[in-house]
Design goal:
With 340 residues, this protein is α+β, with helices and mostly antiparallel strands. The chain contains nine helices and 14 strands. Strands 3-4-5-9-8-7-6 form a seven-stranded mixed sheet, sandwiched between helices. It binds biotin.
């Protein structure tokens, strides 16, 4: 059932991509419904329906019964055909499944991964009603942000799955810094900060057998074009948004394209983790600082000195170096704790 739906969606999407492409390429003139329907081999009614769908999605399209349709302005929403128009990837985002509203992109991506969809499939939503954070927390995901989950099927052992979080954090921090005038950093293991405030979080979930990964769902949430008012006031000293920091909105379509391209570039280096780490360390907020780690069993204070080959955080505690794979990290000087 899911497979059939998937096939139908793919077919529709490639037609939609073509209509949108033609509209973009001909913004200086009108395209008649007949011309579009002949070029694409679909009925004029289908074209008309799709034009209405685009209008509902916020696109401004002029039309006249005599001359046809003309695209005036697009809308900065995350329709797959819009993201795919200028997407330069081979795997990541070749399939994009879009929702205006969803409970959690991670939950849907997990179901799709279990049903066998291709590696690189991305589930994206304008808004999440029950966005999931780490440790069972809720993750605030209003309109204007980027909420997406990427399905990966790396040929690695489950113990190396944390590499996906390194890939995502590096891709996010690079994309944020490229597209907005901020200096974001990575707080180990999966938060992105501007200053001391969280602007993005990652939740990686896995389906695996004992010695091999079946799928990873890498969920990424980025607080982009919305104000702090969307958060409970108690979080205002812990979280931020790009819009709050810069007063400017970033094109979300461009952001997603750049992010997916970065993910793919870094993912190709999966088996060369040293190289990923080298790049990652340049953006680290954690290394070189005194940290407090709340793991399930204990609370430890020490200096974060490095990342091990297996992705663990190395912390020097009383002249001994200890390894941590997960846990809440806070910086001692501020009692910082991740919000959102
Ligand atoms: C955290 O900071 O605790 C992790 C947050 C992860 C949020 C993203 S938004 C897209 C994806 N879908 C979810 O339900 N969660 C992740």
């Amino acid at each position: 059932m899911l497979e059939k739906e998937g096939e139908a969606m793919k077919k529709n999407l490639s037609r939609r991509e073509k209509v949108l492409d033609l509209l973009y390429q001909n913004q200086d003139k009108y395209l008649s419904g007949e011309e579009l329907s002949n070029k694409l081999g679909v009925s004029r009614t289908s074209i008309w329906k799709y034009i209405n769908y685009l209008r509902e999605a916020g696109y401004q399209i002029e039309s006249s019964s005599k001359v046809g349709y003309r695209l005036i302005t697009s809308a900065d929403n995350l329709l797959p055909e819009e993201i795919k128009r200028n997407l330069n990837t081979e795997i990541i985002g070749q399939e994009i499944i879009y929702y205006k509203e969803i409970e959690s992109t991670n939950d849907t991506a997990k179901r799709l991964a279990q049903s066998g969809v291709d590696e690189g499939t991305v589930v994206i939503a304008e808004e999440q009603k029950r966005g999931k954070g780490r440790l069972g927390r809720e993750f605030c995901s209003p309109l204007g942000g980027i909420w997406l989950s990427c399905i990966l099927r790396p040929d690695i052992k489950p113990t190396l799955a944390t590499r996906a979080t390194y890939i995502a954090s590096l891709a996010i921090v690079k994309t944020i810094n490229k597209l907005s005038a901020v200096d974001a950093k990575i707080k180990w293991p999966n938060d992105i900060l501007i200053g001391d405030k969280k602007v993005s979080g990652i939740l990686t979930e896995m389906g695996a057998e004992l010695d091999r990964v079946d799928y990873l769902v890498v969920g990424m949430g980025i607080n982009l074009n919305f104000s702090l008012d969307n958060f409970d006031e108690s979080l205002h000293n812990k979280v931020t948004t790009i819009y709050h920091e810069t007063g400017k909105k970033v094109s979300r379509v461009e952001f997603v394209q750049a992010l997916l391209e970065e993910i793919e570039r870094i993912y190709y280096k999966l088996n060369n983790f040293e190289e990923i780490l080298e790049e990652w360390k340049a953006y680290s907020y954690t290394l070189g600082r005194i940290v407090k780690i709340d793991s399930k069993r204990e609370e430890i204070i020490g200096e974060a000195i490095d990342i091990a080959e297996d992705g663990a955080l190395l912390v020097k505690v009383d002249d001994k170096v200890r390894k941590f794979y997960s846990g809440e990290v806070s910086l001692c000087h501020q009692g910082f704790n991740s919000g959102n």
